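Anyone up for a design puzzle?
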């Protein structure tokens, strides 16, 4: 629970007051009310206790003011820490957005105009896929440099020559499971690890486990979207074929 006045947790509030030797402010208020009630009691006792009562009330009021000052300072410090943390999270999210935006999730197997590019962005594999499975598949075409980040479910594969890279892309395009040339190619590595492949110059894949996990979540979402996108042309094709068939049946009724 949080103190509604200062916006700080109750346990932190009470601990701070205790360390300062000040009773809980609600207890102070209760004591003040009790003192006020006693001050109204019998006329005979009022004169006797008036001076002492005034001193006690003043002492309690001083403690109350001190408590308020301590809690206000504590609230300001906690608020400052929260703001710093929130700003750090905001900056981290912006940085992550920039990283993800640079990854070629929308790439294809069509060779890029820039002939210096001879690398591929590979994504969507299970974190359990061993790196050697990807290496073995790619090295059939020639020497490679492979950077795999399992938590991100991403990798970059760079071939030694552009010609070899084009052969690799053509192999996936013609013998893989790709159904839509406008999406990254689809191939199954080692018979059990489906991955997407697209041309792309190597980009950063995050620097921390948190970054890698966030990118991994994006990859899972993109893989689902691509699967749906690959399926849509087939659906449209069936619709077109159905329309053509219906039109053919009716075409003999009239000639112009």
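Challenge accepted. My sequence:
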């Amino acid at each position: 629970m949080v103190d509604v006045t200062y916006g700080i947790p109750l346990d932190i509030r009470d601990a701070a007051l205790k360390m300062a030797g000040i009773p809980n402010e609600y207890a102070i208020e209760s004591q003040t009310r009790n003192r006020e009630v006693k001050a109204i009691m019998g006329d005979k006792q009022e004169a006797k206790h008036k001076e002492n009562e005034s001193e006690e009330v003043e002492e309690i009021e001083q403690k109350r003011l001190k408590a308020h000052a301590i809690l206000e300072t504590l609230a300001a410090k906690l608020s400052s820490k929260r703001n710093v943390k929130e700003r750090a999270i905001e900056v981290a999210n912006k940085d992550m957005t920039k990283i993800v935006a640079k990854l070629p999730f929308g790439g294809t197997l069509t060779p890029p105009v820039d002939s210096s590019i001879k690398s591929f962005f590979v994504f969507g594999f299970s974190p359990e896929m061993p790196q050697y499975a990807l290496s073995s598949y790619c090295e059939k075409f020639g020497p490679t440099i492979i950077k795999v980040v399992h938590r991100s479910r991403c990798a970059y594969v760079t071939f030694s020559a552009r010609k070899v890279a084009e052969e690799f892309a053509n192999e996936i395009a013609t013998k893989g499971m790709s159904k839509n040339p406008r999406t990254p190619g689809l191939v199954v590595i080692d018979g059990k690890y489906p991955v997407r492949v697209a041309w792309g110059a190597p980009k950063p894949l995050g620097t921390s486990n948190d970054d890698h996990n966030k990118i991994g979540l994006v990859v899972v979402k993109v893989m689902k979207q691509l699967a749906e996108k690959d399926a849509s042309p087939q659906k449209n094709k069936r619709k077109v074929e159905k329309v053509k068939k219906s039109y053919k049946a009716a075409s003999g009724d009239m000639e112009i």
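A detail worth pointing out: Residues 119-233 form a domain with the Alpha-Beta Plaits fold (CATH 3.30.70.330).
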